[in-house]
Specification:
Number of domains: 4
CATH superfamily of the largest domain: Isoleucyl-tRNA Synthetase, Domain 1
Number of strands: 13
Strand content: 5-15%
CATH class of the largest domain: Mainly Alpha
Length: about 600
RNA sequence: GCACUCGUAGCUCAGCUGGAUAGAGUACUCGGCUACGAACCGAGCGGUCGGUGGUUCGAAUCCACCCGAGUGCACCA
């Protein structure tokens, strides 16, 4: 029963929901509770605080806001909960509503409501579309990509995909390091190789070896070291010869990175490369502007921005050098130039940085300076989303047996080989080419999932065996769940892409699966906001687990299943397969028909 | 010294703006295939949430202090 006010507001709010969102159950319940709470005379600041039902006995969702509101109104909480229920309209949505414990309201959704919701076509999200710049991967081109580049590349790519899925305009920016001091040394080395008649591509066949060579050369030969230092200056001031050598080096190194991206199934291509050197011509201006604004001052010969907002307890401001005493620029300078480019030219509403947690202070400094200099208006969101380090099974940073850095290229090869070996241990009826193709999807998927499924900000322990065990919360388990579903459709000789039938929910396992399927977009919303992809992994794992229970208890194409039931279950299967594939695709992981 | 991050089952990890008896996986012990793919499912075992105080109807979650680990702190990126 609704009061007049409640009814009006109810229509208003409900109208908005149905107009502009896909079915988001939590949002729907939240709105209905808000209306009921207002009708019950509860101040609008009080939230219904909806949560998933912790346990089966607590319902599908629970509203926990009555207790806080009761305290505010100095009323017995259960009494207030009852008053909310009296004003609550969940006709056709909830089947059971009960007050439990000190004042929890447990909501049991109706089977028919869930079934109908699954039948509705998915509307595209109509929320505000933003232009989002996503800065990720950004390897240093002086060396080969190594495992340290994995997290930024994988997590950043997932967020780019998630935001695109939501309809935002995503601009990927690969801020490659191609302009550091080491490049003097590298092009001096390259010059010698070319002088001996070697081809650039050959000399640079192994960037890691090449780097070590030139470093050794630099340390051992003072004359070479002097030339290297001179080349840095000449390069940055536009000397044609140095620029030519540099370009040869960069071309090879960029190509190497692009190969890795392709192998990793990451959506970064040449068009997303916006390397440090691209901002070279703007660095003078950035510093000049900072000086003119009085933000950068001379200190010990360098131009430094002192940030009082990042001062320590003793009041010492945090210094950030934007120009060296010798006149050279640092990465802080090019980061500021990039910031301005992203705001002014790319028109970003939101700029996301997926960069190692060790850069946190640096990012804070860059953001603070960008704000103070008004390079970035307050309407633009600047977000550093840090991540931890990948550790080996010994709990120390992941290295080769000999203690060296692990090249990403080698790492990927090993993952695929391990996947192939495991496949051969199982009984697979795939032929040789199929095994190769599937092993690639499994190996790469396993690596990415191992990384994505851990809370981003924590260090994580990487363990080949755990990741490749194909048991528990791993990519292969999800891929397996997918193949099992597709197998049902093969057996029934039905095309899951075009199949459509009404859903009828009877068994408990069917309800659990239906509810889980409907929660997909709630999860995606959250990830788009907080940039923690592990919640998507957790969701997909739960979905697959719930499906497996359904699979055990609810026969589909076995003998004796009535056609109506069979079709309903096939529809649940088709939706599960589609949701798994969609979710994995957002993680950059492929599925396959058989494995 | 200062700053940031983190201490949850033997191990690897979840725990959403404070909510009910802290959850998964793994390991270990049982049970389930004349197969919609057992690379699976089910059950059991396993916890003083680093410690001590505080805030309140209610704390793994918020605050303070301590212990322990990692990382970063002006001319590399």
């Amino acid at each position: 029963m609704l009061s007049v006010t409640g009814n009006l507001q109810s229509e208003l709010i409900i109208g908005q929901i149905e107009e502009n969102t896909i079915m988001r159950i939590k949002e729907l319940l939240n709105q209905r509770f808000l209306v009921a709470m207002q009708a019950a005379g509860i101040p609008s600041e009080c939230s219904p605080t909806l949560a998933l039902g912790g346990k089966a006995q607590f319902g599908d969702y629970q509203a926990n806001g009555a207790m806080a509101a009761a305290k505010r109104l100095a009323m017995p909480p259960r009494e207030l909960a009852q008053k909310i229920l009296d004003n609550l309209d969940l006709d056709g949505i909830a089947e059971t509503l009960e007050i439990a414990g000190p004042g929890f309201i447990n909501i049991g959704l109706s089977n028919a409501f869930l079934a109908d919701s699954l039948g509705e076509p998915k509307a595209g999200p109509a929320r505000d579309q933003q232009t989002v710049v996503v800065d990720y991967s950004s390897p240093n081109l002086a060396k080969e990509m190594h495992v340290g580049h994995l997290r930024t590349t994988i997590i950043g790519d997932t967020l780019a995909r998630v935001l695109e899925y939501q309809g935002h305009e995503v601009i990927r920016q690969n801020h490659m390091g191609d302009w550091g001091t080491q490049f003097g040394m590298l092009i001096a080395e390259l010059e010698e190789h070319l002088g001996e008649g070697e081809q650039a591509a050959l000399a640079l066949n192994d960037l890691e070896v090449f780097y070590q060579q030139s470093k050794k050369h630099f340390d051992a030969d003072p004359e070479f070291a002097d030339r290297a230092r001179a080349y840095v200056v000449k390069l940055q001031s536009g000397d044609q010869h140095c620029r030519g050598l540099w370009q040869k080096f960069i071309t090879v190194s960029v190509a190497h990175s692009l190969e890795i991206y392709q192998e990793l199934n990451v959506g970064l291509t040449e068009e997303h490369v916006k390397a440090e050197s691209a901002y070279n011509d703007d660095l003078d201006t950035v510093v000049k502007d900072l000086v003119d604004l009085g933000l950068a001052v001379e200190s010990e010969g360098a131009k430094v921005v002192f940030l009082a907002e990042l001062a320590d307890k003793n009041g010492n401001p945090s210094p950030m050098i934007v120009q060296k005493s010798g006149g050279g620029f640092l990465y802080a300078t090019s980061d500021l130039a990039a910031l301005r480019h992203r705001v002014n030219t790319l028109k970003a509403d939101r700029i996301l940085y997926f960069i190692d947690a060790r850069q946190s202070l640096h990012m804070k400094q860059v953001f603070a300076t960008g704000r103070k200099a008004q390079f970035v208006p307050p309407t633009v969101s600047l977000e550093h989303h840090p991540f931890g380090t990948m550790m080996g099974p010994d709990g120390k940073p992941f290295k080769t047996r000999t203690g060296g850095t692990v090249k990403l290229a080698d790492f990927l090869v090993e993952a695929i080989e391990r996947a192939e070996r495991l496949m051969r241990e199982k009984n697979t009826d795939l032929n040789e080419t199929e095994i190769k193709a599937v092993a690639r999807k499994i190996g790469i998927g396993a690596i990415k999932y191992a990384d994505l499924s851990i809370t981003r900000t924590n260090d994580y322990v990487f363990d080949w065996d755990a990741m490749m065990s194909f048991d528990g919360n791993t990519a292969p388990y999800l891929q397996y769940a997918y193949t099992r579903i597709r197998s049902i459709f093969r057996k029934a000789d039905i095309d899951p892409e075009t199949f459509s039938a009404p859903i009828e929910i009877v068994a408990a396992e069917e309800k659990t699966l239906a509810l889980k399927l409907l929660q997909f977009d709630e999860v995606i919303d959250q990830i788009a906001a907080d940039c923690y992809p592990h919640t998507l992994c957790a969701y997909l794992y739960e979905l697959a687990s719930v499906y497996m229970s359904f699979y055990e208890h609810c026969p589909v194409v076995k003998a004796g299943v009535p056609e109506k039931t069979q079709h309903s279950r096939l529809q649940l299967c088709a939706l599960t397969a589609a949701t798994l594939a969609q979710g994995l695709d957002l993680l950059g992981i492929d599925v396959m028909e058989k494995m």
